[in-house]
TrEMBL record:
<keyword id="KW-0808">Transferase</keyword>
<keyword id="KW-1133">Transmembrane helix</keyword>
<dbReference type="GO" id="GO:0005886">
    <property type="term" value="C:plasma membrane"/>
</dbReference>
<dbReference type="InterPro" id="IPR001173">
    <property type="entry name" value="Glyco_trans_2-like"/>
</dbReference>
<keyword id="KW-0328">Glycosyltransferase</keyword>
<dbReference type="Pfam" id="PF00535">
    <property type="entry name" value="Glycos_transf_2"/>
</dbReference>
<feature type="domain" description="Glycosyltransferase 2-like">
    <location>
        <begin position="6"/>
        <end position="166"/>
    </location>
</feature>
<feature type="transmembrane region" description="Helical">
    <location>
        <begin position="231"/>
        <end position="251"/>
    </location>
</feature>
<protein>
    <submittedName>
        <fullName>Glycosyltransferase</fullName>
    </submittedName>
</protein>
<dbReference type="GO" id="GO:0016757">
    <property type="term" value="F:glycosyltransferase activity"/>
</dbReference>
<dbReference type="InterPro" id="IPR050256">
    <property type="entry name" value="Glycosyltransferase_2"/>
</dbReference>
<keyword id="KW-0472">Membrane</keyword>
<feature type="transmembrane region" description="Helical">
    <location>
        <begin position="263"/>
        <end position="289"/>
    </location>
</feature>
<dbReference type="InterPro" id="IPR029044">
    <property type="entry name" value="Nucleotide-diphossugar_trans"/>
</dbReference>
<comment type="similarity">
    <text>Belongs to the glycosyltransferase 2 family. GtrB subfamily.</text>
</comment>
<keyword id="KW-0812">Transmembrane</keyword>
<keyword id="KW-1003">Cell membrane</keyword>
Amino acid sequence: MQKLISIIVPMYFEEEVAQECYNCLKSVMLQNNINYEFVFVNDGSTDRTMEILKGISTEDYRAKIVNFSRNFGHQTAVTAGIDFARGDAIIIIDADLQDPPEVIPELIAKWEEGYEVVYAKRKQRNGETWFKLVTAKYFYCFLNYMSDIDIPKDTGDFRLIDRKVADIFKQMTERNRFVRGMMSWIGFRQTYIEYERDQRFAGETKYPLKKMMKFASDGIIAFSTKPLRMVMTLGLISVLISIAVLIYSVIVKIFGQDIQTGWTSLMVAITFFSGMQLLGLGIVGQYIAHIYDESKNRPIYVVKETVNIEEDDVILYKKEKTNIS
């Protein structure tokens, strides 16, 4: 029996690309004789995205829809797609067609070689600003330095995961999601294929600078305790400097020399150490905020409706979530 490939496509205000995304994906599936299902996750779009998706699902029973009650974010939409996907392998791809569907057969070929995770690595990023290119480059360098796991550079969520990886992923219940980090943490045999990233087909990016900064913060806090250790180290250094200054002052006083006091140096010292304290409190506060989010034990997302998803699959999903919680 031919294995089933689930294609997960998060959608957020994608009325300009939804139909073309479906057309391109279906064309690749048919040309390569792939047994497929599409899981479109409407992440609270209030434009015509849901209307277009319903039209698609009416014509193609393999086009399934998970419709959120509001916007929960891209990483949560990916999570929902994995929750509802039934495939032996699952592929995550964005709707904007920057990640070309033509790469999908290459991902499947690597999976058939025995790899459980196959991620797509960008060797060229067309249509992106120099600011995005520079920040992306240094983000991954900084993230890998700060993180306790190795997260591949120049990769996004565009990847294939095996069913066994998906089942483990579904057991991970943290609310602040960083999918590519979670996949790296799970492990198994992982490899990559290289591709050139295209320009966005239409519309605007849904990841402005503010969202990118939160995304980076979530990734670092979720997979590293180094910021806490750095704060502790800086605190220790500050204490040692203070002790050294105290010893110096005592020695100078013993030998009868006057200690010159200066307003500028005093203010610099006070400002510096006060800033370090506030920075430390801020970092600790971020970790506490994440702990607080987890302690509320709210569902990761709320589904308003599903389309072309069998009742048995919905019941199974609910049972799995009940068992996990």
